[in-house]
Fold each of these.
Amino acid sequence: MAKYFDPLPAPGDIVWCLFPESVGQPGPKPRPALVLAVAREFKAISIAYGTSQKTDRIYPTEFLIGSSDPNFALTGLSVSTKFDMARQVQIPFNSDWVAKAPGAALNSPLPKLGVLPANLVKAAKEAAAKRK
């Protein structure tokens, strides 16, 4: 049985999850996701897809958190990662969908990696505005 995590994350948090490839099923590969909204009554979160692949190619609905960013340490990410604001889903905030990232400190709050740095909020909003 899935364990629900408490407390719920906040918008702007970065979590480690099994982003779904098909509706209602956890994906096969864990990855970072940006929390966009929280549905407290359902213990669910709306997230945007994150990947460390092809970070040299950023599309209009994507933004990059580069490892050279002065606030990169706040993210909890280990490498440059782009988030696609066009790929959003809502998932339960439980152990079937989210987990502690590999290499995360033992005392880090589960399953939050870090937060979106304030200097990148505008880029995230601009990418979201281009979502169709």
Amino acid sequence: MTKKSRRQFLQNAGIATLAAVSPLAAESERVKELFIHHVLFYLKDPNNAQDEAKLLEGLHKLAKVPNIAYVHIGKPAETSRPVIVRDYTFSWMCFFKNIIEEEIYQTHPIHLDFIKDYSGLWEKVVVYDSVGPKKV
């Protein structure tokens, strides 16, 4: 190995090491990792059909946030295994290309209007955010 090629090798190795531990490497992971945002809504009055219809209307408006890759609005399924939670009114699950898109969604005017206009209907929400596990 000549001095020039060895020097070039060491420079390339140093650049590769810096890239692997830099915040930019972590940022590139944030850009390519699927992000799932799952919310369970519990109405204050779960037997009120008008409140349920109004919240459903709001969820359909919320689904128009442009950076949502896929959205599913659901009701509890008619299943009865002991591990299944069925006490919520609506399930809102949306998929984003990455966490950055989800962060944009959180501050999008449609999302902020949804909270302002419909939060009076629910007594609580439970949120499950998930990403894929890191490869070992």
